[in-house]
What does this fold into?
Amino acid sequence: MKITRKEIVAKVCYEVCRRVLPRYSNKRGPKKYEFWQLIAMFLYGLIYNLTYRDIEEEFLVSEVLRKALNLKEVPDYTTICKAVKRLREEDLRKLLEESSKLLGVKLEILAIDSTGLREDNASFYYAKRSGKKRRSWRKLTIVVDTDSQAIVSANIS
It folds into this structure.
């Protein structure tokens, strides 16, 4: 049987997560799904620009994808969403490092860029008129390998 690109992507996501993340994110929680399976599903969805519901649907219709992640049954989209919220910043850094190793990113020429992100959606005029305090700005810094265009590091401060 021919291996599809989506199956390869799912297997790579699973392998990266399995190497870096703990098996379960909560010691006392139910052990129905491994943490790395849920995060691998999320990464797969990021690559193919899928919503949480679309991720669930994609894995429901594809037995090949379920086998790639060793899933006996497909979790609900809310389970994936809650798992992503439990990801820590250090876990994300480790995922980036491990994926760059696995994909053979050479890190010869790097580009770095930063941008400011506002924590609320209120316009300046609305905030002034309503007396609402504006939340602070966050700084996002990203380092990218220019040859492969892979994100090597990201930091929010």
Residues 114 and 120 are 19 Å apart (CA to CA). The chain has a mean pLDDT of 84. The radius of gyration is 18 Å. The first helix runs from residue 5 to 20.
